[in-house]
Amino acid sequence: MKEENSAGAVIFRIVDNKPLYLLLKARYKSEYWEFPKGLIEVHEEAEETALREISEETGLKNIEFVPNFREKISYYYRRGDQLIHKTVTFYLAEAKTEEIKLSSEHLEYAWLSYEEARKRLKKNMAELLDNSLLIT
User: Fold this and answer.
1) Closest Cα partner for 72 from 51, 92, 90?
2) pLDDT of residue 134
C-alpha cells in the first residue's frame, strides 16, 4: 500500500465578528467540498506545504496561521487499482482578504458560515471544522 503525506489549512475570515470558512469544490469529484491541501514535497515542512498549496489553489498570500492548531486526519482512497493511505496535517489560517483566484483543481469556492460549511463537508472534514471552532 502506498503512503501519502499532505498538508493544508482550514481558512477563515472574520466578517461582522463571525468567521466565514473557505471551501473549494473539487474538480476530480464535483460532489466534494474541501479545504486547500496538497502533497508535501521533498525537503518541505508541512507548514510550508500548507502555505504553498493555499497560494496555488486560492491565490491567497496574506494569511496568518493561528497558533496551537495542528490536526492530522488520515483516510484511504483508490487511484486506479492501488489503495493509498493518506495522512493530512491541517492548520488553521485567517485570510486577510476575500478575493480568491481558483486553480484548475477546483470548480468553485464559497465563503460559508460554520453551519453551511459543515453541511457540505464529508464526516472527517466536518470534524476538523468542529475542532477549529475551539480556536476561532
Assistant:
1) 90
2) 67
